[in-house]
Amino acid sequence: MSLPHYRRAAVVALAASLGLSLAACSTKSDDGSTDAKGKVTITVDCMPVGSQKDLVKNWNDDVAEFQRQNPTITIKSVSVGEQCNNPPDFTARLAGGTVTDLFYGYMTDLQQVLDSGQAMDVTEYANKNTIPTWDSIDPALKDVFTDNGKLYAIPTKNYSMGLLYNKALFQQAGLDVNNPPKTWADVRAAAKKISALGNGIAGYADYSAGNTGGWHFTAELYAQGGQMVTADGKKADFNNAMGKQVLQNLKDMRYGDNSMGQRQLLGWGDLLTLAGAGKVGMFVGAPDATTAIVTQFQGKYQDWAMAPMPGQDAPAKGTLGGGEGYFFKKGLTKEQVEAGLKWLAYEKLTPGKGQFDYARAKPQNQPVGLPQPTMFAVGSDAQKQELELRKANANVPVENFTAFEASPAPIKGEPRNAQAIYAVLDAAMSGVLTNPNANVDALLKTAESKVNQLLASNG
Amino acid sequence: MALTTAPGTGRQPGSRQSLPDRRSRARLGRRVRDNVTGHAFLIGAMLCFALFAWYPMIRGVVMSFQRTRRGETTWVGWDNYVRIVNDPSFWTAWKNTVYFTLLALVLGYVVPFAVAIVLNEFRHAKGYLRVLVYLPVMLPPASALFLFKFYVYDPSDAGLFNAIFRALHLPTSEWMQSSTMTMPAMVIASTWMNMGGAVLIYLAALQNIPGELYEAAELDGAGIWRRIVNVTIPQTRLILTLMAMLQIVATMQLFIEPLILANGAGTQDAATSVAYLIYQHGFFQNDLNGAAALGVIMLVALGGFSAVYARLAARQD
To answer: Is B86 within 8 Å of chain A by CB?
Structure first.
């Protein structure tokens, strides 16, 4: 071939590859609705990531069994890697219109999902016929995904916060592992003893970066009995004695007692890394934080126990709760929605199946026996069944969570505009944890005016 | 009758094509054939730019004047701009970004030039030294920053800087946990990460300076400092000017340093940058339109700066 021919061939190849790339860029993958034979196809995201071999196998087995039981339904699983737990990636998929037919979201995502215009109202489809345990599901969880009387997602997991503590460090510090701190004064005293062990161990640790500081400020404010915004949602409501107490508790421990360690500006993974390494005595968190400590940060289940959220002078007046669920993409057919609901019922909401298949999870060393999720209303058949199965197959020391389960604090959800508010409160949290001269009043006043400004401009 | 045809007037009716005409058509044909390849490649590049640069940019400007709520996109005029300017962190972000840029000019601009001058003086092992200086550029930025976060800037005495300072009986710092040290610490890390490329560019410029100029300066009794001021800097002015502009535009887009070193905003917002604020609005605050507005403000600011700078530089020349 002469040189010009090579050049021509190169041009053709370039044009062809460009065309192919452009074709590949179009993401109309969700094309399978109902075919001529009445077969329904749905795409579902947040399949477990490849590194979690057992979980992937369980998921694939469940898909195969579900399809065997429902020969007219095909589930196309989509793994988006760890992105399922990464809000920016979720937002990008939502904005880009590349979400799957059934797509995973946090309870705090409802607003942005509605604003994106991509969620479908599934009120008329969610019932006992599609989800046999529907009437047993805690109504409070359904409410979180309801807007103006319309249901937009099916709740599949929930959590609430408490005080996680390291039993091994408690023992080393001469503390009673069966009598965890109940008030912030108790936390402070215990933190002092634990940090006295030295070796860079923090008696108590808390977040102050990446919006997690504001998240924990909220949880600790709820425990004091406070709220982040007024009932009408128009004004900040934390610049008061309760908000000051939250920051003062932390400042006293950090600089008064020097019991919070030197490393601050901790984000989600930072604190759990330190906890997994045995460098943290106590922190505020949900039961599944122990799962992260064990599976991602090399900690041990037997080391971690959980107590209810500490209150100021008495048990906490409230605790922060949240969770996750699955939304339905707008434009699905009735058959697709019903197929999706059936799948969620099978995989997420049936005792003994999917996420509640404890008999399968136990030998795989997946945690069984943690006190949450608690998807079913207390006293319902599904709840009793799930509890029995959980107890029968427990492989984590359930006694470590009895204190938490015995005294549940009232659960409060996250405020509207949660992430924007949390970003503002990060500064207050980082202030008291990194500046010995921080002025609690000034920090709260600044945060209050910023949140007010934010609420006013967001309408 | 003699057959006369003015050149370029086409063929006579009923006659065959004239020679010059045929030649011109052949030339045209060859030109088209030759250029079709070039144009085809150009189309590829234009498509890529249009798709991945110009379209998103135009879309960003359009989005900055819209608001999407409940799936409905409406035109809202300047509302997003008003909202973003009223954001509690707006001015903090700009103040931090400009401060970082100025600090980076002092440190990140001078140090690579000084290193290039020193390297240029070496007679031996030049190649090895260049590789050493360039090595950090080859590290992925995220890895380099994690190295700084956990190893260099550890607030305890285990941190590299604190260990050195303690050994020298100097006061230690909490680095990223100190609101006053946050920016200098980010500039140090950023300079270490990025200076390799600038050093190589300066080295290339330095090696183009004729040796006679230094010899003449030496004969006139100029010391090393005078030689730098009177020979090196004037001879590399063009490249210095260009690098200053590129550096300012790059440092104004400060993002990954606060994200990794300071976990975002840093202590009491000391690390919040404009680009980080865009990220917060777009990906955490359900406000892609506000993020687009802030992006446009930044584009205008940087574009305006570049235009003024280019004009001033041209006038100097």
So the answer is: yes
- In SS3 terms, chain B reads as CCCCCCCCCCCCCCCCCCHHHHHHHHHHHHHHHHHHHHHHHHHHHHHHHHHHHHHHHHHHHHHCCEEEECCEEEECCCHHHHHHHCCCCHHHHHHHHHHHHHHHHHHHHHHHHHHHHHHHHCCCCHHHHHHHHHHHHHCCHHHHHHHHHHHHCCCCCCCHHHHHHHHCCCCCCCHHHCCCCHHHHHHHHHHHHHHHHHHHHHHHHHHCCCHHHHHHHHHCCCCHHHHHHHHHHHHCHHHHHHHHHHHHHHHHCCCHHHHHHCCCCCHHHCCCCHHHHHHHHHHCCCCHHHHHHHHHHHHHHHHHHHHHHHHHHHHHC
B positions 209-248 inside 8 Å of A (CB): none
pTM of model > 0.90: no
Partner residue opposite A434 with nearest CB, options B47, B267, B288: B267
Phi-psi region of B258 (alpha: psi -120 to 50; beta: other; left: phi over 0): alpha
CATH class of the A162-321+409-458 domain in this structure = alpha beta
Q: What is the pLDDT of residues A361-415, one digit of tens each?
A: 999 988 899 998 889 998 899 999 999 999 999 998 899 999 998 888 888 988 8
What is the predicted ipTM?
A: 0.83
Domains (range + CATH), chain B: 30-75 (no CATH), 81-316 (1.10.3720.10)
**Min Cα–Cα distance to chain B from A291, Å:** 23
Q: Domain A40-160+322-400 adopts which CATH fold?
A: D-Maltodextrin-Binding Protein; domain 2 (3.40.190)
Chain A neighbours among B 172-191 (CB < 8 Å)?
Answer: 174, 176-179
B25-80 residue pLDDT tens: 888 888 877 788 888 888 988 999 999 999 999 999 999 999 988 889 999 999 99
Q: How far is A344 from chain B (nearest CA, A)?
A: 25
Same fold, A40-160+322-400 and A162-321+409-458: yes
Q: Are A201 and A195 in contact (CB under 8 A)?
A: yes
Nearest to A189 by CA among A200, A178, A201, A173: A173
